[in-house]
Amino acid sequence: MGPPIHTVLAGVCAVFLCTTLSAQPLGLPPVPIPADNPQTPAKIALGDKLFNDKRFSSTGEISCATCHDPAKAFTDSPRVTSEGIHKLTGTRNAPTVINAAYFGLFFWDGRSPDLEDQAQHPIVNPVEMGLTNHDPVLKVVRTDPDYVAAFRKVFGTEPAQVTMHEVQQAIASFERTIVSGDSPFDQWYFGRKADAISAQAKRGFDVFMNKGRCVSCHTIEQNFALFTDNRFHNIGVGINRIQREVPQLAPAFLRAKAQGVDVDKAVLTNPKSSELGRFAVTDTLDELGSFKTSTLRNVAVTGPFMHDGSLATLRDVVEHYNNGGITRKSDPVNDFLSGGIRPLDLSDDEISDLVAFLETLTSPQFAAQRQAAMNPASCNVSTAAVAATDTVKAGGSAP
Amino acid sequence: MSQTFDRRTFLRNAALGVSASTLPLTLVELAFAKPEDTFTFAYISDSHIQQIRGTEFVRNWDRGLIRAVAETNLLTPKPDFVVFGGDLAQLGGKPELDHGAGMLARLSGKVYHVMGEHDYYLDLGEYWSKLFGPQYYSFNHKGVHFVVLNSILTYDDWTLRRWPTAEQRMAEMAGLDNPNGSPFMVGDKQREWLQQDLAKVKKSTPVVVFSHSPLQKIYKGWNFWTEDAEQVQALLAPFDKVTVFYGHVHQIQYNQIGNISFTSAMATAWPWPYPQSYAQAEQLLPKLTVQMNRADPFFERDATGWQLIDINSGRARVNFNLYNNRTRTVAFDEKTGQPQDTAFQAADQRVPPQDHF
Predict the structure, then answer these.
(1) Which of A5, A162, B137, B278 lies at a CB distance of 3.0 to 4.6 Å from B297, suitable for a disulfide?
(2) Do A246 and B26 touch (CB under 8 A)?
(3) A285, A288, A345: which to substitute to probe chain B, counting the most B Cβ within 10 Å?
(4) For residue A284, what are the domain limits?
(5) Beta strand B315-322 pairing with B328-333
(6) ipTM greater than 0.90, yes or no?
(7) Where are the domains of chain B?
């Protein structure tokens, strides 16, 4: 356990507010603010309070911040998949809220169109905050004197008139302040500070831009870098586990959906349906097994990786891509693999360089977490290598 | 990729009580006319399976065919049959045809095969015929008369007397814009057979013809061409409803000549045209001298795909399933009397091509 959430949060938020209300962090564009939900300091503070309120769960133990913990770069690292009420686990790894303000669609499969819409769903998901509907939330915000005053001040709304619309707007406003750039990479690439990153990381950047083909999806623009194309790709994670069952699963899911099954609940509670990816949302064969391109900012402190948290280290991730969309070289490639994924033929040194580059994407606010044993294994070590070492230490015989 | 809202899906939705305004490709089922007039089939073409050496094949082309087969198998309800439109192999050798046939064997249901020039010019179709049967034939399905032609034959002099080896003959015909090539044709023997075959068919029966090359003259330099196209068209002219499907061109084309509606198929291998600009790894693409635009060269599957076709009262509606791209539908329009793109036909609905990346 880290320090109490609110203490950390106050400190972290002060930094965020300061950054957002003054200069743009290096490496990021202006935060897009929807015309119907302008930012105000009072609304942001209200959103912060809502984000941390555990009363919005059936057990009173889970808030948004449980899985998007500011002390863990707004994830629940090192958890593989998130843990909601009664220690129930879902099927997906909690993505960071940092820089979510720039994303085009929300959740790993893009089933939600904006931050406002997204905020309502975990509250009523049976394996997250577990309420059956939003009434308990409204009851709290309509009766708690602090909330009554805050909603009156921010929205000019009397208690009885407060709806989820205002709740979601406030949470989204708060989330739009959680932005961070200024990483060593930003200092080097946009700030032109030649010694901001190591020679190895610079070589890794070359791999990132060229032989590794990373930049085609983890985009870098002329004067900012979000490291995501905001698109969805089948990269051979998750879907590889259910390959044989796809011919039964996919049509069965479509039939169930046509009969009114709730996609949000189905994909988080059924591990196999979950791996259908964006297909479950759009029904298009082209998106079978595809998930959203994550940003790479702060990636060294948000492990484990991928939508299902199945890859423990950044080196594991790079090796997966290097193998052409399979984690172990002997695995079969899935039939629906994105045409952008192919074996890369990177050498061991190139892989190490690339991981060294990815480690330069950590913003100063989260650099301390790098040291805080969030990722016990170094990002630049392959899990397979660690396992092999353990076997030797334990005196086990190699297969 | 979005399915446009149209009358058919509306009718089906209404029938099922589905409130959503769209239905996935896999659940397209026709609500028109009598059930016996309506059926679907899948159409996969131009996979160009290419051996590098031994058991090593070009990964890109393998992935294209594997994906088309896997997606076709997910169609619900199942199509009545699958047509493979030719050019299964790149240079016609046994290893290529065997490897391709192995991948096609995963298709559930009946598969009809069309001969492509890349399958033919090494051994003049001998091994292909061992695997897949006759090179031209016809069959009837739910009131429609289907004809499969081998349209990629050419002059005997070119085929039998021009080249010192079978390998060179194959390589010469495999080039897209090769001046040493020779125009494709159906030929006298097959046209005679076609005449006799069609003589038994009522003029009101819808006729659907599969050929590998277009049975129309588009561009001779690339052999988007069949030398005796007019003579074949004349044999089809007496029928009320004729549809010709062809592969070979690796791009979406549609046209109406008289009573005949033409629609091409996308390739699963690569699109024509394509740029060679994104060549960080060895490409193994055939050489092309005329550079043109491609949607997104990073995604090797982009601008490739396969087709789900429904035949409704003898008219075709072709759903192009395009990877990394929007689905397109080309359907016969009763008002204009020709096939039309259901979304992009009007000039102001078209998406301008990208000119940089």
Answers:
(1) B278
(2) no
(3) A285
(4) 239-288
(5) antiparallel
(6) no
(7) 1-31, 40-276+294-344
